[in-house]
Amino acid sequence: MGFFNLIVYRYLKTFIVMARFDLKFLDRNPNLNDYIQVEKITDDYFIDCINITGVYDNYDFIIQLDKSTAIKFAKTLRTEINKITESEVTNG
Questions:
Q1: Contact between 63 and 73 (Cβ < 8 Å)
Q2: Domain residue spans in the chain?
Q3: pLDDT block averages, 10 residues each, the chain of length 92
């Protein structure tokens, strides 16, 4: 769950708008209710982790990654996205 702070300037008056929101990444199939969420947590041993939670086929799941594994995962994800982009350019 994330917090969003927005400072608004209007007629030289400043006020802060705060909103609570959940950012969910939905499955590409709109007929499914599957999704994932990503957030930073501190585990029971006071170590910062990346928590990936979600629902797949009506089952909840949790994946916890330490910082170095999360960095490797992000790099691998970017590489796979680049492969899709390259194939779209050559096929398009």
A1: no
A2: 23-91
A3: 52 61 86 92 88 93 94 95 90 74
